[in-house]
Design brief:
There is one protein chain. This protein has about 325 residues and is of the alpha/beta class. The chain has 2 domains: about 150 residues, Nucleotidyltransferase, domain 5 (2-Layer Sandwich), CATH 3.30.420; about 160 residues, Nucleotidyltransferase, domain 5, CATH 3.30.420.40. The protein has 10 helices and 14 strands. The two termini are about 20 Å apart. The structure holds fe (ii) ion (FE2). Fe (ii) ion binds next to α3.
Length: about 325
Amino acid sequence: MKVLGIESTAHTFGVGIACDEEPYILSNVKDTFVPKEGGMKPGEVARHHSEVAPDIVVDALSKAGVTISSVDGIAISLGPGLGPVLRVGATVARALALKYRKPLIPVNHGIGHIEIGRLTTESNDPLILYLSGGNTIITVLRERRYRILGETLDIALGNMIDVFVREVGLAPPYVKAGKHMIDVCAEKGSELVELPYVVKGQDMSFSGLLTAALRATKNHNLNDVCFSLREIAFDMLIEASERALSLTGKREILVVGGVAASQSLKEKLDVLSEERDVILKIVSPEFAGDNGAMIAYAGLLLLKHGVRINIEESYVRPRWRIEEVDIPWS
Ligand code: FE2
């Protein structure tokens, strides 16, 4: 069985092909919109996606060495994400499903991140940290659902860091030579500036930290503020994760999502996993950021369990949470 998956929830338009036997991922092609200045404007991103979509679909099929008529389903990430951007991918997916008479499979973007992480790291019943631009979630799979044990109470960790580097003039681009600008800046800092640290149980709050860090740049060295912001934000996440480990007794941590590529976070997680004697697994950079392969693979799992959606019901779901999705393969 083979599934073509389309990712179009935020700045990346991606198409991947997954199959149900090794090597599982046959292709993974993407194009990411980078704004010249400022943050993402949904209209601009949607225009970018509609321009690149045809070439990305063709490229993904040719790299996988399959024809569209030989795939068994079209998977689409219907949410969560930005409405106008989600609609581009959904329109492409619906058109392909209709023209080639294939089942359309609704995939939650977060479930895509988690399942590609479980597949590629061969993880076994882990505590999952889903960390991306839009999400900061601590979760475990239990009784057919990803149960959320902790999350951000306001903005996501990745978004907070992106906004900070942008506001102080370090970005875009947010990543240079594989390194996030917060790391480039933080590596030159050493003094800890006092900033708010907010953990409530297993939940975290980053908005006060962002405001205070921006204010602190007026009377502290910028490198020291970068260093302090990163240390405090990651320490908050480590504290919440440690509590979730104690609560669940899990022996493995799996990190998925774009922030999983952070080397400095890995160093802190290495210490945590050593102290708690648990195995640490981090999704590889290819599958950390948004990509079509993760949607294809989650779509494949869903299709195998009979999940599909009628075209006329395939609305985009900008606020679709992972715990709303039934996970029949658990
Ligand atoms: Fe994502």
